[in-house]
Predict the structure.
Amino acid sequence: MVSPCLRLLLNQIEIEGDTSSGGGMTRLSQMIKDEIPGTYVLSVKLGSSSLIDFLNSYLMPINQQIETVCQMVHSDPNLSNGFHLIGISQAGLFVRALAQRCPPKVLGSVISIGGPQQGVYGLPQCPNATANPFCQYIRRALSKFAYTDFIQSKFTQAQYWHDPLNEAVYKDRSQFLADINQEKKRLEQSVDIICLPSSQTVNVTYRNNLLTADNLVLVRFLHDTIVIPGASEWFGFYRPGSADTLYDTKESSQYKTDSLGLRTLDKQGRLHLIPLPGNHLQFSDEWFRDVIIKVFLNGRTYT
């Protein structure tokens, strides 16, 4: 009997997490295979062992991670006709970057579960830093060093540190997030760009690539104490000059200017903002099966 994968080339899926070998990622991969028989699932590992994978998820520059995964998926014959992307936690940001920089022949759903799309400005477990002197002190201390070349090149989390009190420094010095979020004022001449009214330049390729996705799915945990602020999971963030007042998705520059195609995706019914009660990554197998697999993964074939 010919397997469904060979007969129909069912959903090809690439899935990423902070460490792909964790029990949670293995369980989610198996759930996808059980729900959609014949599905090929690639769980990305950035190293030859679980320890190296773990260390690379925190110490390998994100741009290098994206390039490594890009080469990995494009050299995998099982993914040659297209795939979905699923990222858990910080990988929810990374898979969106992968879609913008290294899209497949056919891009299905790009799914971020708890991914900090606008970065972070705060320590885990310090959601109300302005009311906690220690958290506030640490946050300011981190900002003092986060944008140095050494820290930006050595620590993954620094590359999506977003200081709303120093937006100009963030946009100028951020080696990853400001670029992927279309906030850099200068791009290489070889990059196809357009200019926004603010004189900010936009990488058209990033926008066009993301617009090829069937869906952009952003899951936000409403009581998140790990991603600070939790609004970042939906492209919200602190207002420039403020460390406590937030703006929402539609107030973000990425939505208002449509520099990433968010407004277009929304108008076409392809931007999905999904709220979940509870803290970071608190979701059930039933929710993942019913909301993610059945709605956004099932149905698309790659032939």
Notes: Residues 1-11, 187-191 have pLDDT under 50 and may be disordered. The two ends are 19 Å apart (CA to CA). Residues 4-297 form a domain with the Rossmann fold fold (CATH 3.40.50.1820). DSSP finds 13 helices and ten strands in the chain.
